[in-house]
Design a protein that fits this description.
This protein has about 300 residues and is α/β, with parallel strands linked by helices. Strand 1, helix 1 and strand 2 form a beta-alpha-beta unit. It is globular and about 55 Å long.
């Protein structure tokens, strides 16, 4: 029996992992047991409790989806952001080490915000990090803690959205039905990530590790294929929602936020595609899938 622990199971990514598991979408050639937890069932901020939990339970994989993701609020809730995004990662790693579970594979989710957004080419895993926000700095510290364990994998992603939780796609979808027009920035470039696609990729990594002993630790990048601006993304959402709402392009300087967003956050995915033979959908196709799900809910 292969045992897999998922933390942060009620967030966007955790919910998609749960969905794939419950629907039996990915088949394993061995019996695999998933344990989905959130802060109410497993307090990863409590190192004593967590170590006791790992003393009582043995896991072959730990997938950490727990995160503090409010970029603006993190500036005034610095301690909370660092606790969830860094200290909790340290707690998990130390609990695994103390239990002497040296064969346990740890998968931790990170973000494009560890970069400064000043590149003009897709970010590779080896490029210099330079976070500009509390959120980005706390996530980078979490990466450092994760990589102190030899069997760990950090997956950075960007512009995550899903039919679960709060995200840009759901917000724009809702506003398109409520307003005659929307203003969205056109000078911030990146790639959306449909959380289902990332969850499916994680399942493939677990499956290949189980069946082929293929688990290559280190940092990886994952998003959908293609490149767009937030304006492009919003305009296609409005189009697919069959909305009459007019989406207007504006510059970032005309939409001030407490924390400046990266102007460029495209991630190079060659490493994860090569190592795990992944075929990643284009962001436009995944948005179609998102609408298929939300329209049928």
């Amino acid at each position: 029996m292969i045992n897999v622990l998922v933390t942060g199971a009620n967030g966007q990514l955790g919910s998609e992992l749960k969905h794939i598991h419950n629907k039996g979408i990915v088949k394993f050639d061995r019996s695999v047991n998933f344990v989905f937890t959130d802060i109410d069932t497993l307090d990863i901020s409590n190192p004593i409790f967590l170590k006791k939990f790992f003393q009582d339970h043995s896991f072959d994989f730990v997938i950490n989806c727990a995160a503090y993701t409010n970029v603006d609020l993190a500036e005034t809730e610095k301690e909370k952001a660092y606790n969830v995004n860094a200290t909790c990662v340290k707690n998990i790693v130390e609990a695994i080490k103390e239990r002497n579970l040296s064969l346990t594979k740890f998968i931790h989710i990170s973000t494009d915000y560890v970069f400064d957004g000043k590149s003009h080419i897709p970010y590779t895993e080896e490029m210099q990090t330079n976070p500009k926000s509390v959120y980005g700095k706390s996530k980078l510290e979490g990466e450092i803690f994760a990589l102190q364990y030899k069997n760990s994998m950090v997956i950075r992603t960007s512009w995550l959205y899903s039919s679960y939780g709060k995200n840009f796609a759901k917000t724009i979808h809702k506003l398109c039905n409520e307003r005659e027009s929307l203003n969205v920035v056109f000078d911030q470039i990146g790639t959306p990530t449909y959380a289902y696609d990332l969850a499916y990729a994680i399942f493939q990594i677990v499956k290949q590790s189980v069946s082929e002993n293929r688990f290559i630790s280190g940092i990886y990048h994952f998003s959908n294929e293609g490149v767009c601006s937030w304006y492009d993304f919003a305009k296609l959402i409005a189009n697919k929602a069959k909305s009459n709402c007019v989406v207007n392009p504006i510059e970032s300087k005309d939409y001030p936020t407490p924390v400046a967003r990266p102007f460029y956050s495209v991630l190079n995915k060659n490493k994860i595609k090569s190592n795990y033979k992944l075929v990643i959908p284009f962001w436009q196709d995944s948005l179609d899938e998102y609408f298929n799900i939300t329209d049928n809910k």
